[in-house]
Amino acid sequence: MKIGLFIPCYVDQFYPKVGIATYELLQKLGCEVYFPMGQTCCGQPMANSGYAHLTKGCDTNFIANFTGFDYIVCPSGSCVLHVKDHLHDEKQEEKATAIRNTVYELTEFITDVLKIDHIDGRFPYKVGMHVSCHGQRGLKLSQMSELNAPFFSKPEQLLHSIKDLDLVALMRKDECCGFGGTFCVTEEAVSVKMGQDRIKDHESHDVDYITGGDMSCLMHLDGILKRQKSRIKTIHIAEILNSLEN
């Protein structure tokens, strides 16, 4: 299975360990992983700000880098959703369609394509799971709490299988952290207050780590935690799954 590893630009620049963990994890799970060196931003920041029509260069470059893979895997639900919803090229629409149909968020790929429901190992810490809006409501990685429907969560399914990992039950498990892409810049005060409220839920359960599938949300929460001099740390789910003890 030939995998194209799609690493968002902000992860590449600020959190390269998340990209490395994703690469190593996919290899451990038996995938043949390639990192296209010419990849850049997928165009999501422009689309978030109402300028999706200016992302044609990003689209063309993405198609050039990710054509020909069996699957494209990314440790960021928001970037995956952007590609699924916005990747188009009038000169290469067939290639664009193929990419939109084969791009997956990491935990979605592990559970739905590789059909893996548990990963052996132990992580002896208390963990709070932050559910990102794009992943939940766009990619359907987990059930929304306002619906009267059976609960499911693809990332939590993997976390529950890990020995000694205490996954806490949050009071408001799918509340937005306030990051919202460029929203955190245009509405800074509201964004920070939402993040502070989100952190209080984790603090009330005395967690050691806040994890999630979107490093953008974790970046937002991590900044607030550091300013508050909190002992709580953030960790991407790929880093947990790749660093399990025996």
TrEMBL record:
Q: Name one Pfam family in it.
A: CCG
Domain annotation Cysteine-rich: ranges: 4-83, 127-222
Q: Which InterPro entries match?
A: Cys_rich_dom
Q: What protein name is recorded for this chain?
A: Cysteine-rich domain-containing protein
**Any one annotated GO CC term:** cytosol
Mind listing the GO molecular function terms for this protein? oxidoreductase activity
Q: Which residues cross the membrane?
A: none
Q: Which domain of life does the UniProt lineage start with?
A: Bacteria
